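We both want to read discrete structure tokens more fluently, so let's practise on a single case. Once you have written the record down, we can walk along the chain together.
***
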Amino acid sequence: MKKGLTATSLRSLLITVLVVIITAASAGFYFGLQYLYTFAVSTTQATITATSSNGESAQLQKLQQSLAAQQAVIAKTNALFSTSDSYQSQVVTDINRYASEAGLPTPSYNFSPKAPSTPTGPAALPRSSTSFTVSLPASVPYNSMLTFLSGIEQNIPKLQVSGIDLKRDTKQGHVTTPALTIQVVMR
């Protein structure tokens, strides 16, 4: 006797195969949907990060452009105050130039070893200053002296005449300056 497939067993086999195929398709669809959801979330996060980075990059470029545009102001601000190491040579050069422009003889300097002073009070900035004495060797015209003093007061780094000893000379319109005290502001 030959055993073969009967209609009933074939039907049972086909139903079983159909159930397995439907179950496999459902499981594949579920896992595929989960994979697509995870991929969509990571893509969205990458897009948000890229957009944020692009905005930050644009803002950084604007800040760099602003800083580059302000370099002249920064350089001038840094030049306002001398350092305690370099103020003497810079001051001598500047004052000699002002004396020459005003037609005055080269002054002499006295940088006595004074400790730098620090301003106090509510309006004091975090800076210090020191004073030195300048004297001109001969009598000079009064107008030339005013030009010289104006140059000192407008100097960068900041110089300020804090004491002056002017005496009338025997020549008409001339003065002598035995002592001119100048204060230099330092960082």
Residues 7-69 form the longest helix (63 residues).
